[in-house]
Amino acid sequence: MSDLMQIRTMAAILRQGRGLASVAWLCAAAALALLCLGPLTTVSSGAALFSLMAGAVQAGYALRVNFDHALLEAFAATGNDDDPTRLDAALAALGLRATAQAQRSWADRWQGMRGLLRGQCIALMVQVLLLLCAIWLRG
User: Fold this and answer.
1) Are 7 and 106 in contact (CB under 8 A)?
2) Is residue 135 within 8 Å of 35, Cβ to Cβ?
């Protein structure tokens, strides 16, 4: 598979982070409503608060995943099937990457991007579980 096809495929995978972020926003709204609407036990309100914190962590991952998705989309739109040094040069020119850092291959980048998406998924799962615990322990 060519590098350009891999770039487009990875962009499509990272696009899934948008759906995860939407679910996280709904969970955060539910946790906030739970905190505002009713009398809660200490454990239940703590679980709701921790759910909101997990949502904040998820939002941080979502920002990075969305940024990487946008970068890959822009890179794929150029239609050039070449190495990632142009991307590194652009990031360095904007001050988003140190120029002294070692060059990374596409495989290394995929691994990092998948790690970010995995972190987003894990943060969302923790958020949902804590929200369900808060609802269950509501008393």
Assistant:
1) yes
2) no
DSSP type of residue 103: P
Rounded CA-CA distance 134/45 in Å is 7
**Per the structure block, which two tokens stand in for 98?**
């140190």
pLDDT in tens, the chain (139 residues): 677 888 889 999 999 999 999 999 999 999 999 999 888 899 999 999 999 999 999 999 999 999 999 998 988 888 776 677 777 888 888 888 877 677 788 888 889 999 999 999 999 999 999 999 999 998 6
- The first and second tokens of residue 30, run together, are 């539910």
Q: Residue 54 belongs to what H/E stretch? A: helix 42-77
* Token digits of residue 13: 């995978």
pTM, whole model, 2 decimals? 0.88
